[in-house]
Amino acid sequence: MIKKIGYILSGIGIASFLIHTILTFDFHKIDIFYSLIVFVGSLIIFFSDIKYIMNVIKIDILRKNEILTFSVLKKIITVSKITAESLEDDIVFISVYSLMGDYAPNEFKKILNNYPDAKGYIIDLRGNAGGLFLNPVYIADLFLNSGDMITINYRGGREIKVYADPAVFTKNKPIVVLIDNNTASASEILAGILRNNNRAILVGEKSYGKNTIQQIIPMPNKTGINLTMATYNFSNKNITDNGSLRPDFVIPLEKKDIKNHNDVQLKKAIEIVKKLNKA
User: Fold this and answer.
1) Of 22, 80, 213, 229, which residue is 20 to 30 A from 261 by alpha carbon distance?
2) For residues 44 and 273, what is the distance between their CA atoms, to the nearest angstrom?
3) Angle at 194 between CA 253 and CA 150, to 5 degrees
4) In the chain, what is the greatest distance between 2 CA atoms, to the nearest angstrom?
5) Which residues, given as ranges, of the chain have pLDDT below 50?
6) Do 99 and 190 contact (CB within 8 A), yes or no?
7) In the 8-state DSSP scheme, what is residue 99?
8) How far apart are CA 185 and CA 190, in angstroms?
9) Which residues lie closer than 8 Å to 255 by C-beta, 6 or more apart?
């Protein structure tokens, strides 16, 4: 855009200069004003080119004994933390890649609003390393009308119980949550709250089992300390095993399944949602 403005200014300056000299028939006189426009436009083009060059990196890739060179423009890429798609029978498949950031609950709520005719939800938390503690609490509350969500245990025996807020409740459809060994921290809390209140069925493999709540304490030298502040637990002790969530349906995802794009866990989740809708 900036470079385009430079071309426009240069063009205007040159055109104006030509018209001016033709009309006055004074080819020995150079108008300072028009020359200045050309000069400014040229500077903009020059610095735009420099900025482009500085933001381009070259990458050499070895492919089948041949080195391929690609020029890549450096940019800030915004990746959605939560995405969704509609599967068969109006089942909405929601992939939650991270629960970091302050906007995760709003992103999740927006997705729910985008699929008003959903017959059920499959929430994929596989590989989700977690995020902020309050995010899974807010998201789980969208599916709960009442109930004990989670208990936070602090040092010295102090504990805080978090309950569902009926005013936040929006959806009452079948839910299946996919978990694996890398489902940790905040994502475990989301899956655990829904399972603890019998609002979701867990499919996959045992979760990571972090079972702690941490807070980053900023330090003067722009570093920080990740301090464990508390542990947590759910009222239903049967859903966990040494802090890890235990799936209702244990289905391993083998390497051959990944290679053949055969998501057996997702297939089982779809089957369960269909059965729940027919019940």
Assistant:
1) 80
2) 59
3) 120
4) 96
5) 2-3, 5-10, 13-14, 17-19, 21-30, 34, 38, 46
6) yes
7) B
8) 9
9) none
